[in-house]
Design brief:
24% strand; single chain; six-stranded mixed beta sheet; FAD/NAD(P)-binding domain; nine-stranded mixed beta sheet; binds flavin-adenine dinucleotide; 20 strands; alpha/beta
Length: 415
């Protein structure tokens, strides 16, 4: 079949990989040059340990507290926009214990499946993308966070994941080269990490060699629909016709879906990262500074710091105050690591595609016969990318699904 994928981030590329392998003729259409989406400069963590969606009890009160501090890790720009109000309403309704209990098994199943796809990719792709299974350390400095995280570890264990509450000296043993100043941590040995730009850039070249067509700098503006089927895609350069269409447009998906008369609430959650090249005494295990909400990932000799979640719409401005918040957090956890504020040109930003309930949208549209949706992975798109791509190919081939997709129904807010 001729399959058109709108969006060439990790979700679109992974879908292209498995669809191409299954023998389909795949075209990826992207409005940019494939380096402008969210999949390039992220923290590279593969995190089956993350079974709690963003919409969780406590997030709203924490978020309100953070909103009044310009260096804090979270910010929602108040706007009188229907899409934000609708998203906020669904977020509020989802921030419950019941929602967590319902979502955790589905998130875990998708993430574990995706990790197994990464293990396969690391073996079958003809290039190295820095895949390592060293686990994840969640580091905390306060008693309050210790309490919250111990509960999280208990929940993870109840779901069959390995999780260990460890002392400060045990953390230090795991990080022999970098001095760590924490109260303790949770160690999730089942997590992994990659170097995302190595995967994405080499995967693009590999897919081109395999015959996948890339139409870059081409924006899909509208669709022609006939008899409940997408007949053609109208883009900034030309019209395209496909047998099957996949929407993998990340933070832009709300607007793209609206063109098809579908409601996919989505907000862009902007985050920043910067990377220290050639760090002499590097961190060994990816970590999250819990109070500061900063992710730290060793990538070869370099070390990447990422963080912040700004719900400010699709915009590309960089708030150096928030980058400063990340920089200032570093020596509070790693007291011997003094990092200068990077120049604006060295700060990467990405727009996380955030659904209001913290769950991705994966599945066939019930309204349009030849449409599949795969988007909204928020903070876990890299982690869940290959799993989602494989599921997309299973949907298109109408085979057995490797993961139960009920929780990820793209129509769940369509009423
Ligand atoms: C600081 C930071 C750290 C992160 N760390 C991690 C991590 O450690 N682990 C993890 O799992 N996730 C992480 N994430 C999240 C992860 O990066 C995202 O979830 C993921 O990249 C989303 O991928 P995507 O393919 O859905 O979207 P994108 O990569 O944004 O791709 C969407 C593509 O669609 C294209 N597009 C949009 N509209 C149109 C249109 N109309 N026509 C044509 N093309 C269009 C865009 O140009 C874009 O290339 C992080 C994010 C940030 C910001």
């Amino acid at each position: 079949m001729k399959v058109g994928i709108i969006g060439g981030g990790i979700i679109g590329l992974s879908s292209a990989y498995y669809l191409n392998k299954a023998g389909h003729h795949v075209t990826i259409i992207d409005q940019g040059d494939l380096t402008t989406g969210c999949s390039f400069g992220n923290a590279g963590m593969i995190v089956p340990s993350h079974i709690i969606p963003l919409a969780a009890p406590g997030m709203i009160s924490k978020g309100i507290r953070w909103m009044f501090n310009s260096t804090s890790p979270f910010y929602v720009k108040p706007r009188l926009r229907g899409d934000l109000i609708k998203w906020g309403y669904h977020f509020y309704k989802s921030a419950t214990k019941e929602h967590i209990a319902k979502s955790a098994p589905s998130l875990k199943e998708l993430s574990l499946f995706s990790k197994s796809m990464y293990q396969q990719l690391a073996k079958e792709l003809p290039f190295d993308f820095g895949y390592h299974e060293r686990g994840l350390l969640m580091l905390y400095k306060t008693k309050e966070t210790e309490h919250e995280e111990a509960e999280m570890a208990t929940l993870a264990k109840q779901h069959g994941l390995e999780a260990y509450v460890i002392s400060a000296s045990e953390v230090q043993k795991l990080e022999p080269d970098v001095k760590v100043d924490v109260r303790g941590g949770i160690y999730f040995p089942g997590d992994a990490h990659i170097t995302p730009q190595l995967l994405v850039s080499q995967l693009i070249n590999y897919l081109k060699e395999q015959g996948v067509v890339f139409q870059t700098n081409t924006t899909v503006n509208d669709f022609i629909i006939e008899n409940g089927t997408i007949k053609s895609l109208m883009t900034s350069t030309q019209d395209f016709e496909f047998d099957e269409v996949i929407i993998a447009t990340g933070s832009w998906s709300g607007g793209v879906a609206a063109r098809l008369g579908l409601s996919i609430p989505m907000q862009a959650g902007k985050g920043y990262s910067f990377t220290l090249p050639q760090v002499e005494k590097n961190v060994c295990i990816p970590s999250i500074f819990l109070e500061a909400r900063v992710a730290v990932t060793p990538m070869g000799d370099s070390l990447r710091f990422g963080g912040t979640m700004e719900i400010t719409g699709v915009n590309h401005s960089i708030s150096m105050n928030r980058v400063k918040g990340i920089v200032e957090a570093i020596p509070t956890y790693y007291p011997e690591m003094k990092v200068a504020l990077p120049e604006v040109k060295d700060v990467w930003h990405g727009l996380r595609p955030c659904s209001p309930d913290g769950l991705p949208y994966i599945g066939r549209s019930s309204k349009l016969k030849n449409l599949t949706i795969a988007t909204g992975h928020s903070m876990m798109g890299l982690s869940q990318g290959p799993g989602t791509g494989k599921l997309v190919s299973e949907i298109i081939d109408q085979g057995n699904l490797s993961v139960n997709l009920a929780a990820f129904n793209p129509q769940r807010f369509d009423f």
